Amino acid sequence: MNEAADIAALTVALRSLVPGPDRTAAFDTVSALAAMRDLGIVAGSLKRHGVQPLDAAPELLPVLVELGHRTDMIPRDTVHHYTAWNPADGRRRMYTGDPMEACLQDAVRMVFPSLVASLATCEQLAGLEPYDPAFALALRRTDRHVRAMVAAIDYTVAHVSPVYFAQVLRPYFEEFTVDGRDYLGPAAAQVPLWLVDLTLWQSDRSGPSYDSFIAESVPYSLPSWRAFHAAHAGSPSAVGKLSAAVSWENADRLPAPLADAALALTDVLRTLKTFRARHITIARKAYSDDVRLYENGSGGAPIELLRSVLDLTRDNETLVRRSTRPRTQAA
Fold first, then answer.
1. Which of 46, 52, 102, 138 has its CA 20 to 30 A from that of 322?
2. Domain that holds residue 197
């Protein structure tokens, strides 16, 4: 249907999928998530072909609102529905059926276990001070988890053409309107790496454009991740705490736990920097003047934001690295 841009068939398909009130009320959480996924991929297909889904199927509105309420998420499908909550076998839901679309889904899917683990170590980190040996240990564990993002972007570069993404897949991630509000599609840009940034540096060493992007992205996250953001936004970051601790030390000697913490924090920031440098490289190809169909990325932000966040990550990594350079580690 998508290949033929068959709006009539897509409309019939969507309306036939919309469950009645009794069936919707009987869904458990897993069924509600699955229903949102299946309705969303057909609704997103209609929007890709220029039709607001709720204009084509008005009876969908109360169902989306109810499913969002039942799952404590936005009233449309997200990147979680499209990847982690999507079967990996022959029942996989896709817009195009192209192997490159499956590879992109798999690249995102492989990140989530490590992201969950990194949030657990970031939670520990938030309650520690740099003088505690556990501070450096939490940073090293976080670094190991974040490396999955680098592996995912390398996998994407190897298997997904920028032209395919920009001209074929990207149009399916456009927003559509639910109850008077526009909601973005289930794009990989919704993967909340910014939750790791929050604890490491963003909470007190960010910039206005990144802060705005995060504020707009928070609603698309899982309920527990929104709670994580609420709990740590505005709290001292790892970079902030380490900088304050280093400023009190003798210029020539740094206690061993503090030196270890600085090294571990430098490493994880370098890993984030590596991911962002590779991400911006592929994004520039997909959004170059002769390829792109859209000005903004699938997460709703301009490509310039990627450069801004890369610069912020690099600045924080440089700050930590230089703060310890002239010092010697105490025995």
1. 138
2. 101-176+187-329
